[in-house]
Amino acid sequence: MTDEATGARDDAGSGRSTVLLRGGLAVVVLAAVGATGGWLLAGGDDSSDPPPTAAENLPATSAPAADRPTPGKSAPAAAPRTTAPSRPAGLTVPAVVGEDFEDARDELREKRLGWRLVFGRGTGTTVERTSPQVGTEIQPGRTVTLYVSGPAPAATVPDVVGDDCDDAADDLVEEGFYPQYPSGRTGTVSRQDPAGDSAGRWNDQVSIWCGDAPEDGASPSPTP
Description:
about 15% strand, 3-stranded mixed sheet, alpha/beta
């Protein structure tokens, strides 16, 4: 009885050990299979590098999108530079106040400026003031008015009959007179009024007829 019972227990114990061993092997196999399946689902090789990010795809020297030119379009042209209009350098009304009006007139002429004489009621022939004022920047050809202290002095009318009309006008202006042109400004002077060598004063007007001489007995009428 004792030996049989003992043998039965040994057989039973041996059978349980075998069952436990087989169960353990099955668990190990299942764990290995599960790990392999998980590796396959995860993408395989762990050694592959991750994909580059968007920032890594840009070249190191790339400019921002706002600064890069659009393909097929040219860059906008630069705005043209404007240049300020040129002005005469240093051309101003000369300092003629206190000078004799004839000297002041000659100085204006040398600077290619026109002149106009306004005589006063005092005494003397000096320039009291100018318009524009002395030192004012002006354009070439501008007329400067000279205000003279005293009245217009006496002058003798030059004889310009037979002269070219332009030359005659220059002579009259030089002597202080203002020419008038009743018949135009071309041709030869055929007549003048007042006559040559007549007494006059600065700023007096002298009429000269240029072109064909008037018929005998006819008096040319001034142009309105």
